[in-house]
Automatic annotation (TrEMBL):
Sample GO molecular function, one term: oxidoreductase activity, acting on NAD(P)H, quinone or similar compound as acceptor
Occurrences of domain Flavodoxin-like (ranges): 4-145
Keyword DNA repair: no
Protein name, entry field: Flavodoxin
Record's keyword annotation contains Flavoprotein: yes
Xref: InterPro entries: Flavodoxin/NO_synth (IPR008254), Flavoprotein-like_sf (IPR029039)
Length: 148
């Protein structure tokens, strides 16, 4: 069983509710899960948990304000995390075209620059397709966690 930190980014609460639901389900599977609503670099550097980004996209493909400080600090400080496993769940809306789910791509770039290791394909959840992001996120996250 794995120790997992969920790094949330959310404007209207959808990604945060999804993250909380993931905590419930992953804990039921026996994992240890922490949900971070205002994540900072020290939340990453003071432990070795696997990292699961669960964020929505705002602006034009941007990271939500509560996740932005971590994103900026990762890029500026480059805290080295060689081989640290991470996964990405990103909520977006395909009507935004090229910026669809852009926040997930930004977080992926920032984590890869630290030397962390992406596990699995990014899960992109389209608000045009579903009103229940957790219905897609839960099975994806259970499978992702089982590979850690
Ligand atoms: C002002 C605004 C800007 C948005 N910009 C994007 C975007 O650039 N790309 C995208 O894929 N989705 C975009 N979205 C859609 C949201 O990411 C999507 O509705 C998501 O489910 C919201 O999740 P949340 O409740 O956690 O904030 C935007 C939504 C709003 C309201």
């Amino acid at each position: 069983m794995a120790a997992i930190r969920i790094l949330t980014g959310s404007v209207f609460g959808g990604a945060l509710l999804t993250a909380r639901r993931l905590r419930q389900e992953l804990e039921a599977d026996g994992h240890t899960v922490t949900v971070l609503e205002e994540p900072s670099v020290s939340d990453i550097t003071d432990n070795e948990d696997a990292l699961l980004v669960c964020t929505s996209t705002t602006g034009q493909g941007e990271v939500p304000p509560n996740l932005l400080p971590l994103y900026v600090d990762l890029r500026e400080q480059l805290p080295q995390q060689p081989g640290r496993p991470f996964g990405i769940i990103v909520l977006g809306d395909s009507s935004y075209g090229d910026s669809f789910c852009g926040a997930g791509d930004l977080m992926e770039e920032a984590l890869l620059e630290t030397g962390a290791s992406k596990q699995g394909e990014t899960l992109r959840i389209d608000a045009l397709e579903t009103m229940e992001p957790e219905a897609e996120a839960v099975p994806w996250a259970r499978a992702w966690a089982s590979q850690l």
